[in-house]
């Protein structure tokens, strides 16, 4: 099954404190003003550590997004070349959204040297800058190596941990543009950039990988709402119309994955259990939802002796997202279980400025800002 991404999806998110009762939490998911205003500048990066260097990469040119298929969201991929002539490790990154009013989130994929020509052909064969890319980058064998969402900044793990970057690797910048505030027309141009932290002394480095833990969203309309999209089948079809068959099929694929094919159990809280296939060590975790999110949690072996909570965000805030390093690395063993649990609140649709006026809908997994996600991210290294 293709990667369940969009971060939405994003290695990104952190607890923001406050009440542990999601029903009593205020509408913290809403930005203070505008679509996602107030994120144009970022704090200075931490000093370089031994063996590290910075390299800044920008989009090739300014781009004015246009949401396809009558929607209000565009996912656009831009190809950038770090011009690596020897192996390096990506040990940190700091994304700088140039037009933060329309940049919802960004994900960065490493393109292996063997797939570089495929990526260049895809870029050259698409009119304009970059290409449309709902889901992943659209390039075979891509690897998630960095991401950003509002509130995130560069977060560093141990200096000997990083993502491998072989010589000749390229990077795809996947940027999710949210045009909800304008109803779909362009909200201005954007030329965002990213500053990479690279370590060229690779002999003592341990490679990182990011595992994704998606869970279903089966959020019905509130009792006070009605409309054609309050029907689940109509809502699923609408996601497919806006984002294509691959994304439109995520809702039913997640039921097969997480509920073993059982019928949808509509409600605000959903979860998914995933078995751990092999020994590994977890260094950081994250979670991603959209504007209807109330809380998200990642647990290890829930209900079993020695159970641990790796991430607990009892009062989710879309505008406060940053990677969450663990105080102490956690070792996973084969046979362990990771669970991600999300709670969403359909009543926020009538409270948040960004969503007021949008059609009531049965909310399932979708790539749009008015759709939802429940995505846990686990940053780990395989262990011997």
From TrEMBL:
Domain of life the protein comes from: Bacteria
Keyword Disulfide bond: yes
Gene3D superfamilies: 2.60.120.230, Copper type II, ascorbate-dependent monooxygenase, N-terminal domain
Pfam families reported in the protein's UniProt record: Cu2_monoox_C
UniProt keyword Disulfide bond, yes or no: yes
Record's keyword terms, sorted: Disulfide bond
Spans annotated as Disordered: 19-46
InterPro entries (alphabetical): Cu2_ascorb_mOase-like_C, Cu2_ascorb_mOase_N_sf, Cu2_monoox_C, DBH-like, PHM/PNGase_F_dom_sf
Domain spans labelled Copper type II ascorbate-dependent monooxygenase C-terminal: 281-376
Compositional bias segments (type: Low complexity): 24-43
Name of protein: Copper type II ascorbate-dependent monooxygenase C-terminal domain-containing protein
Organism, scientific name: Dactylosporangium maewongense
């Amino acid at each position: 099954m293709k990667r369940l991404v969009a971060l939405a999806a994003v290695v990104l998110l952190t607890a923001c404190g406050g009440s542990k009762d999601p029903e009593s939490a205020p509408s913290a998911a809403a930005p203070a003003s505008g679509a996602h205003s107030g994120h144009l500048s970022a704090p200075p990066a931490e000093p370089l550590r031994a063996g590290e260097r910075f390299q800044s990469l920008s989009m090739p040119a300014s781009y004015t997004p246009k949401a396809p298929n009558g929607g209000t969201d565009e996912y656009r991929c831009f190809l950038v070349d770090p011009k690596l002539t020897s192996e390096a490790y990506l040990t940190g990154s700091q994304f700088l959204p140039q037009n933060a009013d329309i940049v919802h989130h960004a994900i960065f994929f490493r393109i292996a040297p063997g797939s570089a020509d495929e990526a260049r052909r895809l870029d050259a064969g698409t009119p304009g800058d970059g290409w449309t890319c709902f889901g992943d980058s659209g390039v075979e064998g891509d690897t998630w190596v960095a991401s950003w969402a509002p509130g995130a900044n560069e977060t560093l793990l141990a200096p000997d941990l990083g993502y491998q970057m072989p010589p000749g690797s390229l990077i795809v910048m996947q940027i999710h543009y949210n045009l909800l505030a304008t109803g779909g027309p362009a909200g201005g141009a954007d030329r965002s950039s990213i500053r990479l932290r690279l370590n060229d002394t690779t002999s003592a480095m341990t490679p990182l990988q990011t595992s994704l833990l998606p869970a279903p969203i089966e959020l019905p309309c509130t009792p006070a709402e009605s409309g054609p999209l309050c029907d689940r089948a109509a809502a699923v079809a609408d996601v497919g119309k806006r984002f294509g068959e691959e994304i439109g099929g995520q809702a039913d694929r997640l039921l097969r994955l997480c509920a073993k094919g059982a019928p949808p159990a509509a409600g605000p809280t959903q979860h998914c259990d995933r078995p751990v296939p092999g020994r590994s060590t977890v260094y950081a975790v994250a979670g991603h939802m959209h504007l209807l999110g109330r809380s998200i949690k990642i647990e290890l072996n829930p209900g079993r002796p020695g159970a641990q909570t790796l991430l607990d965000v009892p009062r989710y805030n879309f505008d406060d997202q940053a990677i969450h390093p663990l105080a102490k690395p956690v070792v996973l063993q084969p046979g362990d279980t990771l669970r991600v649990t999300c709670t969403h609140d359909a009543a926020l649709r009538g409270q948040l400025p960004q969503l007021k006026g949008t059609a009531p809908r049965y909310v399932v997994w979708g790539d749009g800002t008015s759709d939802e996600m429940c995505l846990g991210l686990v940053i780990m290294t395989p262990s011997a």
